[in-house]
Amino acid sequence: MNKLKDLRTQLRLTQKQVAEQLNTTQQTIQRWESGHTEIPAGHLKDLAVLFGCSIDELLGVEAEKRRGDGFARARPEMPWGAFAVSFPFGTREYPIDVEVFDRLFNRLHPGNSLDRPNRWIQFSALDNRLVFLNPSFINSAVLVTDDEDSMPFFASPEAYKALSSHQPGDVGPLLREEYQMILRRHELFDKKGKPDLLAASAKFNSLEVVFGDGRVSPHYLSEDVTTNITIMEDGLEAFEENGFMMVCADAGHYEIVNLSKVAAIEVPVEAYLGHLADDAAADD
User: Fold this and answer.
1) Domain extents in the chain
2) Helices 173-186 and 41-51 sit at what angle, rounded to 10 degrees?
3) Backbone angles phi, psi at 233, to 5 degrees
4) Packing angle between helix 223-234 and helix 269-283, nearest 10 degrees?
5) Residues 172 and 45 sit within 8 Å (Cβ to Cβ)
6) Cα–Cα distance between 55 and 86 in angstroms, integer?
7) pLDDT score at 176
8) In 149-209, which ranges are continuous DSSP H helix?
9) Is 80 in a helix, a strand, or coil?
10) Residue whose C-alpha is closest to residue 228's, from 244, 212, 216, 251
11) Could you report the per-residue pLDDT of 205-243, keeping only the tens digit for each?
């Protein structure tokens, strides 16, 4: 049995309100909740956008909590946050949830920072980025919470997940709206003004290395590079002073960066989770 009714009632939404969001009828929502009718793929994605959950969660499939899950559109009372980091070359901004806000606040508290001043800062942003920051390049940082107006742009995890694919598949009204917002934000259109899904797939399947001089170098997130990111998450040898990390492994071409020269590494969360899921399936 799907969890549509449970999620709807948790958010104090009526069947009519959900139907209006999805451009369908209250009777259709009722049939989905009762299990008399299967939820079409396009509407599953829209419901995931609306509720801020994964499709697996919606269908009642047990799954681990995903990194970087956004807030549901139906939860305007939830706290919002922003993290703005000033580097010598400029500022990079990240939308964050309240849990990340608390972790960053504790991490950056002077009393805590003095113990390991060179330890990299790691967190998940709501705009599909797993972020690693080198404190050696940070001039200052601003943390804000409970202020939606200060939030940098972000969309739902389902939208980023779909745009990581060359063929996003069925698209409902909510997901289509999120597509357009993301495409406009990143200027992912071809010369004729049409959405460039190939460019979007490249964008959301590539990590970005931001060097200390402000130069940004994108690299396709391959399985080998995913392994290195996992090592970084575990805080092992990749964080050593003057350590090196492979950021590109493609058909015999390898690129390695000196982490002491890197200000930030930003990893596309949905593509990263996809590689981890493939690795887990291969091990079973």
Assistant:
1) 4-58, 81-152+203-283
2) 70
3) -60, -35
4) 100
5) yes
6) 36
7) 84
8) 157-163, 173-186, 197-203
9) coil
10) 244
11) 999 999 999 999 999 999 989 988 988 887 755 566 668
User: What local confidence, expressed as pLDDT, does residue 266 receive?
Assistant: 97
Which CATH superfamily, name and number, covers 4-58?
Answer: lambda repressor-like DNA-binding domains (1.10.260.40)
pLDDT for position 155? 87
Determine the Cα–Cα distance for residues 35 and 33; give it in Å rounded to an integer.
Answer: 5
Residue count of the chain, please give it.
284
pLDDT of residue 91: 97
CA distances to 103, 166, 198, 205 from 275, rounded to whole Å, are 26, 16, 19, 10
Number of other residues whose CB lies within 10 A of the CB of residue 247 = 24
Integer CA distances (angstroms), 227 to 59, 160, 210, 224, in order: 30, 21, 20, 5
Check the CA dihedral 207-210-211-212 and report its sign. Answer: negative
Contacts 24+ apart (CB under 8 A), 240-249: 241/118, 247/207, 247/209, 247/217, 247/219, 248/219, 248/220, 248/222, 249/222, 249/224, 249/225
What's the CATH number of domain 81-152+203-283, 3.30.450.40, 1.10.10.250, 2.30.30.600, 3.40.630.30? 2.30.30.600
- Specify the pLDDT at position 264: 96
Question: Sorting pLDDT into bands at 50, 70 and 90, what band is 145?
Answer: confident
